[in-house]
Amino acid sequence: MKCLLIASESAEVLFYWADPDFQQSIRNQYEGSQEEGGRPPAFEDSINTLFAPIIISCSTMIDRMGDSYTSFSTEDQHVYVLRQFEDCLYIAVNGDGEESEEDLKRKIYVMKKLTEVHFGMVTLSSPLLRRELRPHDTDQRNRLWRKFQSLLGTYSRLREQDQSFLVEAVERLVQPTLCEQCIEFLERRLVQTINSSAERAGEEALHAFILVHTKLLAFYSRTFRTVQHLMCSTLQSHPPLAGNLVRPCQSVCLSACQPACLSDFLPACLSACQSACLAVSSLPACQTSFLPVGLSPACLLDVLLASLSACQSACLSVSRLPACQTSFLPPCRFLACLPVRRPSCLSVCLSVCLPGCLSPACLSDFLPACLFACQSACLSVSRLPACQTSFLPVCLSLARLPACLSVWQLLDALSVMFSLSIGAEQACVPVFQFVDPDIQVAEDSLQALEAPPMDPAMPSRVFLEATLKDGFCPMMPHSMYCLPLWPGITLVLLTKIHNCQVAVSVYYFLNCFTQLERKLSDLQFGAALPRSQHSLHDLRSKMDKFVRALGSSSSMQHTWNDFKNKVFSRGGPRVSKELLPHCRNMKTQLCNLYRQCFVADGPRDCQRLAPSLQERARLLVQEQLLDWKDFLLVKSRRNVTMVSYLEEFPGMVHFIYVDRTTGQMIAPSLSVTDHSISELGTGPLARFIKSKVWSCVGTARHYLQKGYTTVTFRDGDYYCCYFLWVESETGYKLEVVDPPVLSDDSAPVGMLAWDYYRKLLRYYTKNHQTEVVKCYELLTIHLGVIPSECILQHCYQLACKLWEPSRIPLL
């Protein structure tokens, strides 16, 4: 029962996200309002009706009192958290008790951060932001909302599963030798190859990094001053990137298994594919637009059945080969992660043929993994001599797909089909209630249709902080290319686009007009600023040059001329509060210019790295990491183990160490997923320890917000400690100064809601201006029977032990 809504002051829904339980609750609540024989109201209309009284009451309270409530709970135990940002009201709701008020507040600020990353300085203008969040075109709105819904879903999942997203820091793979080799390779070969190519279309590679699932292997940046914050903001504020890297990790469990094991699992996939294809084949043609052009569900089923049957035969036959002839197979490291095999049940219907620990819903995740494993098997078998491949059916293999169909298109189509067929099975009603094409493209289609897959060669436009020679820009446009090397391993490139200097100028002028607007707002009634003020003349000369460079036909020219006439003409009004509307108009025009240059879809289509250049870059890195691939996939699951610390720190259960200066963290692997291979396993103990860690982090943040840098408390049979301290660059601990106390309605502690730790470093630097100040955090959980003196000694020794590994150079 979770929901997040963005609405305007006029109660217009700008964006919403709701989980299936909340959606079903809304439908049950409003289905009785439909006329007899008529269709039920669209979901967006229902959610608008539900929240309209809250939105209107908030607007009324702000207009009359200048303030509004920030949270409340209802009789049915629903918790509502509200935040007003300019003209947009954010509302987060939870009705199942899984999220606290603090969690809802953090989700709101994360959503605000995501809009800034995707829209840049357009978010500084409320009218423009409203238009971007709710485009007039229904298809465009569906794609945008689906994208942000995926963002929130991925963020929520990662924050529940990944410690690095919990503490909002980056976890690096602890392998210094390989890390240094990769950094040197990124600098001397990859970046130079891209920047020296004529196919880069005016873009310049600034940053390159390699991720293994959500963990960082190597990061190279040509601008050292912003690399630390850029690394954290890129990984943490762009969860789709990390989410897409997490999902392929399931393929590791299959691709690294023996052929015999895989062949037993394939029949379940065949039956599941058949059920999905049959379900989709009964839909009208207007509702199967997600399929590749010229490919029907029946044709897709034929291709899939033939391909998987060939793979099954290959796996069975390869399993009979001598060990000396199967060296091409991946090592069987994850055999225990596969579901328990039940061959006797594989020939029954879909609900029976699945292994015991698999539901139809999660099969949609396993099927792509199985296909990747089959593809890997076929490629490996193709290297065998002809005399050893007689078992293969004639002209059948996964590589012999129709020319119009790639493996990626096959996976995308299967994913959508499973979401449709499984959704229908769960609801026990047809997936689509209307067959009228005009109705189908209405708002309810957002709940049933997936957005069409993007061109893999098309970059994402992200807006990140940058410091250049000419100035600072908090939302500098970058093009981000995510190039998959193998499932779970990705190369990410951040490039500077050719007209990025416009963003620096726009930010400078926005800052000038904001300061002028603040000065005008503070004036007493009837007072005025002197026209001869140096800042006004400086603004005039720079703005004139900027507008001339844009061209005389731009709307900016007319708005600027109007502003100049009001301020500098002899007969014009004084520089008083009467100019406030003109300042706001200038700010809106600047944001609109920024939108036209960087947010609109047009420029990005023709200005990007050529697909051939992207492929060359991908192959270069693949060649470099080929021998390390399997090691990295294992390392990402067991990066740091608690076993290596138990002998030195007996009684310690878990720890998290964060270097807030670089945004890096170190913690033992802690995962309770089905494919976990940590020391705790996947049973109740692992889930219990995980809940303790998440609870301790929340408690530590609460007290840090109240100004406490040291917290120790007993939680049942466990003893938890939290420390925050600052040091000089040489490791000398600086004088402890209590941080400022934050109000309850302030942004949550972290770096997604706002960069709390950067502000904290500035606060500590005031008393140590001649030194480089570094900030660290340490959270530990011990067994409660350990004496407190030993626990504190452990914490001190652990901090000293971890101080060196955290300083592995990024560049």
From TrEMBL:
Record-level Gene Ontology MF annotations: guanyl-nucleotide exchange factor activity
InterPro entries cross-referenced by the UniProt entry: FUZ/MON1/HPS1_longin_1, FUZ/MON1/HPS1_longin_3, HPS1
GO CC, alphabetical: BLOC-3 complex
Location of the FUZ/MON1/HPS1 first Longin domain: 2-158
Transmembrane segments: none
Domain FUZ/MON1/HPS1 third Longin, first and last residues per copy: 652-804
GO biological process, one term: melanosome assembly
Protein name according to UniProt: HPS1 biogenesis of lysosomal organelles complex 3 subunit 1
